[in-house]
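User: Let's play a game. I give you a shape written as tokens, and you guess the letters that built it. Ready? Here's round one.
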């Protein structure tokens, strides 16, 4: 048995929670208030809670199927064995597309926020160069080991949570009920814009590539991994709600139109919040938090992509094998970041479309096939066929929404 297939002795649950929470809570959250401005706070809250429920259970379905395989086996192994070659090709394309485009999105986001940060410190570094250097740093951490990612993510997420509450303690203290409840608009419409939020909600709860990574880390320990998934996703939901309160309670609904027209990147939103609040200290906290948010998501997403590609190409866990995996993990999105540095919001949206396949549709199919073949002796997601059907409908519905949106068949808040 290769070294990376041996589970680590009694690793702490905190590491797994931090990997899941760190992957979810990151740069993607900055897209939420922008794309949810049409539906506004209460409808967006309902969309977030529903998406959290479905994405938690689709991740548990991946775990249910993964437990029947050797730790270290990822989507390629499971899908090929349980669903056949055709589904494996479809799933493989969607996984690679989502994880690559999210990695690209975080390179774009890191470039813009680092450029903004260094500009505040009177250093002029181009966004492209800043994003590339940051990607190189993350590549080195991921190349070292999963444990290195876990420890670094724990440090970054811990710092991010601290700066989050410092930042949003200030933001929440400035929340204006008239702004949050949008009392200044006459006969505002919200529900027509609800469907537009769903693919972004789905992309903002993306952690599924890390489920095999957790089994590789903990071994066949379903109780431990379930707790990691539950607490990691619940933490993300709570922080998202606070984030919507802080942004929608301070920025009037109409202000988000201009933010979206400028590409919706992180620096634009941070500048808008700083301009409204006129607080130098809050501006600094927003900048620091933004950097930690990008870093934690970057680490988690690239770890999932790294493990998937290692499984797909059969690279071992030696230094040379990990170097090969790191090269194909980071080079394509780095090139994309150099060519198209401002594609953050578009990338997050397209990630939501492709993620419906491997984060919703395929997990339900894997769980059903696993039950038929193995009986799922180690763990079975509750809810029976009804839960499988709900997750399938959720995935197909999200894909349909994105297609309709791409064809300009859904109302746009503008």
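Assistant: Ready! My guess for every position:
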């Amino acid at each position: 048995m290769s070294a990376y297939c041996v589970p680590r002795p009694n690793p702490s649950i905190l590491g797994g929670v931090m990997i899941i929470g760190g992957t979810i809570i990151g740069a993607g959250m900055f897209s939420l208030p922008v794309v949810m401005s049409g539906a506004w706070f209460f409808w967006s809250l309902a969309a977030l809670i529903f998406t959290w429920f479905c994405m938690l259970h689709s991740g548990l379905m991946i775990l249910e199927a993964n437990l029947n395989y050797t730790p270290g086996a990822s989507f390629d192994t499971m899908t090929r064995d349980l669903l056949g070659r055709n589904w494996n090709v479809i799933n493989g394309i969607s996984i690679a597309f989502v994880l690559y485009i999210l990695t690209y999105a975080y390179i774009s986001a890191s470039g813009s926020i680092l450029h903004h940060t260094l500009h505040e410190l009177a250093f002029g570094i181009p966004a492209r160069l800043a994003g590339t250097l940051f990607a190189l740093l993350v590549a080195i951490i991921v190349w070292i080991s999963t444990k290195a990612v876990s420890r670094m993510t724990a440090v970054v997420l811990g710092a991010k949570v601290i700066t989050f509450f410092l930042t949003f303690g200030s933001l929440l203290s400035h929340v204006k009920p008239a702004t949050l409840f949008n009392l200044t608009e006459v006969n505002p419409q919200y529900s027509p814009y609800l469907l537009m939020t769903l693919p972004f909600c789905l992309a903002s709860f993306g952690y599924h590539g890390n489920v095999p990574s957790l089994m590789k880390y903990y071994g066949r320990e379903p109780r431990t991994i379930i707790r990691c998934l539950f607490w990691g996703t619940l933490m993300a939901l709570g922080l998202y709600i606070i984030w919507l309160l802080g942004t929608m309670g301070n920025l009037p609904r109409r202000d988000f139109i201009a933010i979206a027209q400028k590409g919706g990147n992180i620096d634009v939103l941070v500048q808008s919040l700083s301009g409204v609040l006129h607080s130098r200290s809050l501006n600094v906290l927003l900048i620091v938090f933004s950097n930690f948010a990008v870093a934690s998501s970057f680490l988690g997403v690239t770890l999932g992509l790294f493990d998937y590609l290692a499984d797909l190409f059969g690279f071992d866990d030696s230094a040379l094998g990990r170097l090969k995996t790191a090269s194909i993990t980071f080079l394509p999105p780095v090139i994309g970041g150099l060519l198209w540095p401002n594609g953050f919001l578009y990338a997050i949206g397209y990630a939501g479309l492709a993620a419906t396949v491997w984060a919703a549709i395929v997990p339900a199919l894997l769980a059903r096939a696993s039950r038929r073949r193995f009986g799922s002796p180690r763990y079975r997601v509750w809810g029976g066929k009804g839960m499988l059907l709900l997750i399938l409908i959720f995935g197909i519905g999200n894909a349909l929404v994105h297609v309709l949106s791409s064809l300009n068949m859904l109302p746009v808040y503008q």
